[in-house]
Amino acid sequence: MALDEFKTVAELYQKVLPALKNKKKEFTINKIYFVKEKDIWQCLLETRWQYASNLTLFDIVNDILTLREEDLLNYLQKKRENL
Predict the structure, then answer these.
(1) What is the pLDDT of residue 3?
(2) SS3 content of the chain, % helix, strand, coil (to 5)
(3) Positive or negative CA dihedral for 8, 9, 11, 12?
(4) Which of 6, 39, 48, 66 has its CA at a distance of 20 to 30 angstroms from the CA of residue 75?
(5) Which pLDDT belongs to residue 24?
(6) Cα 75 to Cα 32: distance, rounded to the nearest angstrom
(7) 51: which DSSP letter?
């Protein structure tokens, strides 16, 4: 994931935090209360962006806002099973 305008992944995370908060709120409205912004972030890092190249800020925000509940819940379930 190469975005020249961001020096670190943490800096990028802070930039897209409003989109992550919005997605968390959407999950909360749908009665999925336990999801945190970092869960959404980690899910996308490990499933969509791990081997991606030339991602734009638009691509990242779009992926956040279009993440399906099923995909996130499946990711969290697999992560829990691997503990």
Answers:
(1) 61
(2) 65, 0, 35
(3) positive
(4) 6
(5) 98
(6) 14
(7) T
Say how far apart CA 60 and CA 13 lie, in whole Å.
Answer: 10
pTM: 0.91
Cβ partners under 8 Å of residue 60, min gap 6: 3, 12, 16, 44, 49
**CA-to-CA distance for 8 and 3, rounded, in angstroms?**
9
Please answer whether residues 79 and 35 qualify as being in contact, where contact means their C-beta atoms are separated by less than 8 angstroms. no
Which tens digits make up the pLDDT trace of 45-60?
999 999 988 889 999 9
Structure tokens of 38? Answer: 């970092």
What pLDDT score does 79 carry?
92
